[in-house]
Amino acid sequence: MNLQLALDRLTKEECLRIIDETRESIDWIEVGTSVIKEYGMAFVREVKKAYPEKVIVTDMKTMDAGGHEAIQAFEAGADITTVMALSSDLTISDMMKVAKEYNTRIMVDLLEVSNPERIKELEKLGVDLVSLHIGKDKQREGKFDVSHFALVEDFPFEVTVAGGIDLGTLPDVLEKAPNTVIVGSAITKAEKPGEVAAEMKRLMNEFANKN
Ligand SMILES: O=C([C@H](O)CO)[C@H](O)[C@H](O)COP(=O)(O)O
């Protein structure tokens, strides 16, 4: 099970400091949408160069022009880039075509998707990696909870989860055995990010060893 560190609403210097403090505990590094908007693909290149051993996820949240944005992400060194499930099938399939050429992956973000029909369509498109996600704004009405797993439980997807997950909610999330847990603020806003990430990874390893 992977721990993905999500870097959002931070300066470059803060991102690099937090990666450095958490590097022993994290598996995947997400250059968040807000960081990409601030610094562009140049910063993705910088992170990949500094941490070639980590899986780099660019949270592009692509909604259109999928082929172009996938090339931008993969040329910058991303191993995985995100597209919104609510975008056109053509956007998603164009990105999957590019990912095949680069030997990389597309993560489909299920933000605001609750209709099982859309999930079936994604499966038909050949999607294999999805993100169950409660967005930052929506978190004001409630953070990610395990009832959201129901949307994908009958599908063969690799599942990542995000949406305000912290040390309090992690144990319940782990019971559903997602492939990757995405954590942003609970680590990045912590006084000691390294300690929070280490404790999260310890709980994840403990769960994996028991199951
Ligand atoms: O994708 C994200 C969000 O939409 C802001 O861009 C975050 O990376 C994701 O939600 C994880 O962050 P937290 O919710 O702060 O754990």
TrEMBL record:
Gene Ontology biological process terms in this record: 'de novo' pyrimidine nucleobase biosynthetic process; L-ascorbic acid catabolic process; one-carbon metabolic process
Superkingdom to which the source organism belongs: Bacteria
EC number per UniProt: 4.1.2.43
Keywords in alphabetical order: Carbohydrate metabolism, Lyase, One-carbon metabolism
Pfam families: OMPdecase
Pathway listed: One-carbon metabolism; formaldehyde assimilation via RuMP pathway; D-fructose 6-phosphate from D-ribulose 5-phosphate and formaldehyde: step 1/2
Family (UniProt): Belongs to the HPS/KGPDC family. HPS subfamily.
GO molecular function, one term: hexulose-6-phosphate synthase activity
Coiled coil ranges: none
InterPro entries in alphabetical order: 3-hexulose-6-phosphate_synth, Aldolase_TIM, HPS/KGPDC, OMPdeCOase_dom, RibuloseP-bd_barrel
CDD domains: KGPDC_HPS (cd04726)
SUPFAM superfamilies: Ribulose-phoshate binding barrel
Protein name (Swiss-Prot/TrEMBL): 3-hexulose-6-phosphate synthase
Lyase listed as a keyword: yes
Enzyme class: lyase
Reactions catalysed, as given in the entry: D-ribulose 5-phosphate + formaldehyde = D-arabino-hex-3-ulose 6-phosphate
Domain Orotidine 5'-phosphate decarboxylase residues, every copy: 2-200
